[in-house]
Design brief:
The chain has helices spanning about 40-45, 75-79, and strands spanning about 10-15, 20-25, 50, 55-60. The chain is an alpha+beta fold. It has one domain (about 10-79). The protein has a two-stranded antiparallel sheet. A two-stranded antiparallel sheet has the order 2-3. The longest helix is centred in the middle third of the chain and has 4 residues, at about 40-45. The mean pLDDT is about 95. The chain binds FE2/S2 (inorganic) cluster. FE2/S2 (inorganic) cluster binds near residues 26 and 29.
């Protein structure tokens, strides 16, 4: 995979629902951040499919520098 594009400078805080499959954009080219819109087909990479065990609010990474995808780990502040 090529180097991801930085898609934002802060995470998106969102309510995630239990038993729903989400596709987090790992390439940074999606216009529906933080989720995949299929743009990776032209840019390389694949989305990260994930779900949560219970409804929860989460901060999803948009800078694509996190060490804990799809969640923000604060990397956008230092890199
Ligand atoms: S558009 Fe980025 S992973 Fe699909």
């Amino acid at each position: 995979m090529s180097t991801p594009k930085r898609a934002g400078n802060q995470p998106v805080v969102i309510e995630l629902e239990k038993d729903t499959k989400y596709a987090w954009c790992s390439c940074g080219y999606s216009e529906k951040q933080p989720f995949c819109n299929g743009a990776h087909k032209n840019e390389g990479g694949v989305p990260m499919i994930f779900s949560v065990e219970k409804d929860k609010k989460a901060s999803l990474c948009t800078c694509k520098l996190t060490s804990n995808p799809p969640y923000c780990d604060g990397s956008h502040r230092t890199e």
